[in-house]
Amino acid sequence: MNLTDRVAVITGGAGGIGAALGRRFAAEGAAAVVLADLDADAARAVAEGIGPVAHGVGLDVTDEAQVRALVDETERRCGRIDLFCANAGVATGGGVEAPDADWERAWQVNVLGHVHSARAVLPAMLRRGQGYLLFTCSAAGLLTAVGDAPYTATKHAAVGLAEWLAITYRDDGVRVSALCPQGVDTPMLAGGLAEGHLGARVIAASGAVLTPDQVADATIAGLAEERFLILPHPEVAGYARRRAEDPDGWQAGLRKLVRKLRAADQ
């Protein structure tokens, strides 16, 4: 996909990867960029910084009626949606002992948020015989977010959903990509580090932390080639192969890293 003259919607657009995507899409010549976020004021501020092609709105991706209303309003104003980026996500830093409310929140945002967007935009895309869905799934959806069971489980589900959509609708003209970065310098990672979350510490220890703008660059390249997996950290492909070929060895390596981090705390 070439972004020139395209209409794009980005959830979680008030910061991090979402804001970086918005800036880059506008720089690529997008006709309109809609930044939707739970923090409506922050989304509007980012849009103002981008310029007249951008528009910031409030959105709770767990509320399907709000998602449908956003899609309807964007199609009314702009005529169509060429690219819908389901980018909103939440982490918990918890294990299986995490409260049910944390598990439910992760499911609602990280999985059903994608379901709601697909339900809302697919009918018009299928009628036109073209469209693009981009899901931000995280490398955790291919590997594991050590220390965060709800995030791991829901991001794996998000990748599975993206793959199902790609298989089901590609022949009808709808493209699907799963964006799977590893460590990214966002408020989510910073907050995890501040709270001492093990997963955030593992990412920081890896030394492979990209800026949101670097992720946006990789996304543009992946969209141009219409790749299903967009991997801003190319090494994730190698990790996934090792995990598939030798799951016991892969898990042993992660356990060793966890032991090292925990020993440093003592």
Automatic annotation (TrEMBL):
This is SDR family oxidoreductase. Belongs to the short-chain dehydrogenases/reductases (SDR) family. SMART domains: PKS_KR. GO terms for molecular function: oxidoreductase activity. Its EC number is 1.-.-.-. CDD domains: SDR_c. Residues 6-182 form the Ketoreductase domain. Keywords: Oxidoreductase. Pfam families: adh_short. It is an enzyme of class 1 (oxidoreductase). Transmembrane segments: none annotated.
